Amino acid sequence: MCGIIGYIGKQEAAEVLMEGLRRLEYRGYDSSGLALLNGQGLTIQKAHGKLQRLVDRLQKDPLFGTVGVGHTRWATHGIPNEMNAHPHTDCKTEIAVVHNGIIENFREIKKSLEGAGHQFHSETDTEVLPHLIESLYKGNLFQAVQQALQRIHGSYAIAVVSAKEPNRLVAARKGSPLVLGLGKNEFLVASDVPALLKQTREIVYLEDGEMVDIGVGSVRILTIEGKLIQRESIQVDWDISQAEKEGYPHFMIKEIMEQPRSLKQTAAGRIQQGKVMFQELEVLRAGLSDPKKINRVILLGCGTAYHAGLIGEYLLEKFIQVPVEVEMSSEFRYSSPAITPETLVIAVSQSGETADTLASVRHAKKQGATVISICNVVGSSITREVDATLYTHAGPEIAVASTKAYTSQLAVLFLLSLYLGGLRKTAPADENERLLGHFKQLPEQIEKVLAQSSNIQELAGRYAQFDRFLYLGRHVNYPSALEGALKLKEISYIHAEGYPAGEMKHGHIALIDDKMPVLCIVTKSSVYEKMFSNLQEVHARGGKIIAIATQGDSEIRGLIQDGVYLPEAHEFVSPIIVAVALQLFAYHVAVHRGLDVDQPRNLAKSVTVE
Ligand code: F6R
Question: Residue 226 in 3-state DSSP?
Answer without folding.
Answer: coil
